Amino acid sequence: MSIISIKNVTKNFKKNPLLENINLDIDKGKIYGIIGPNGSGKSVLFKMICGFLFPDKGDILIHGEKIGKKERFPDNFGVIIERPGYIANKTGFQNLKELSLIRGTIEDRQISKTMKLVGLDPNSSQKVKNFSLGMKQKLAICQAIMEEQQVLILDEPFNALDIDSVKRIRELLLKFKDEGRTILLTSHNQEDINICDIVYRINGYQLEQA
Ligand SMILES: Nc1ncnc2c1ncn2[C@@H]1O[C@H](COP(=O)(O)OP(=O)(O)OP(=O)(O)O)[C@@H](O)[C@H]1O
Ligand SMILES: [Mg+2]
Fold this sequence. Notes:
The chain has about 210 residues and is of the alpha/beta class. Helices cover about 30% and strands about 30% of the residues. The chain folds into 2 domains: about 1-75 and about 150-210, Rossmann fold (3-Layer(aba) Sandwich), CATH 3.40.50.300; about 80-150, no CATH class.
């Protein structure tokens, strides 16, 4: 069974068509890329997969179960969609700690380890309000992966990262794939797309294999 199934999904905003009757199956252990111009609906598609927005028509199934306003979102998904809200006056570690308390499944050690993995210093006393764009992006990556989430929905995960960090995160995602995790990402950069097993382009309100 597919991890995520998008079935005949249509989404419009005020009668402006965005996605028309699209279908997509996401299977375990692969990296999927979604490309398309600005405003073509990539982020909207990801928001629908995460249940932040709903299709006008069609269904989205997660592990075979329809998601809707009433259903709970599966908790093994790690998500980056736009910039998450952080507590400005706390450090990176403190922010991740607060987030980790929601699920209560990881220890401080795991938070520190993940921060180091993406190139953040867990012991830094710098508050998030003083973080650079790239540092905030790394924090976003941390929250999406620190609990070993098995499905990663990453909207432009490489945004604002320097060259070495991009390389590091690409390698990390490939390692996750080898571990059997499933990744769906968007990017405007061809080199990021090269790590994907399957790439779809949004074109003319449709999803076509690139
Ligand atoms: N909540 C909303 N209400 C109305 N229109 C919206 C809403 N969210 C997105 N849109 C519109 O839907 C279209 C697609 O937006 P989306 O953010 O999915 O584009 P994108 O493909 O992610 O672009 P980018 O490459 O710039 O990130 C845009 O025209 C946007 O203005
Ligand atoms: Mg977008």
